[in-house]
Specification:
The chain is an alpha+beta fold. The protein has one domain. The chain contains one helix and three strands. Strand 1 and strand 2 form a beta hairpin. The longest helix is centred in the middle third of the chain and has 13 residues. It is elongated and about 55 Å long. The model has no long low-confidence stretch (mean pLDDT 95). InterPro entries: DUF1659.
C-alpha cells in the first residue's frame, strides 16, 4: 500500500550561547518560533534566524528547523 507525506508546519529553533561553565563548555538557551510555513526555503528561514539573532545580546550558536509532516495512505 502506497503512502505519501503532506508537509505541515515547521518550527524555527534559535540556540544562543549565554555564557560558559567552569570547564569552558558553552551554556546554551533555545527559543522556539512556531508557525513557520512548510514551503519556506531553508535560506529564508536561516536569514530570518540571523536577523532575529542580531536583536539579541548573546551570539547565535545554532539554527535548527524542525519540519512536521503527516503520512497518509495514497
Amino acid at each position: 500500500m502506497a503512502v505519501s507525506r503532506i508537509a505541515d508546519l515547521s518550527k524555527l529553533v534559535i540556540t544562543s550561547q549565554i555564557g560558559t561553565d567552569s570547564q569552558g563548555q558553552p551554556i546554551l538557551k533555545s527559543k522556539t518560533y512556531n508557525g513557520v510555513k512548510a514551503a519556506a526555503l531553508d535560506q529564508d528561514v536561516y536569514d530570518v534566524a540571523q536577523s532575529l539573532g542580531s536583536l539579541q545580546k548573546n551570539p547565535v550558536y545554532r539554527v535548527e528547523r524542525i519540519d512536521r509532516e503527516e503520512i497518509i495512505q495514497a
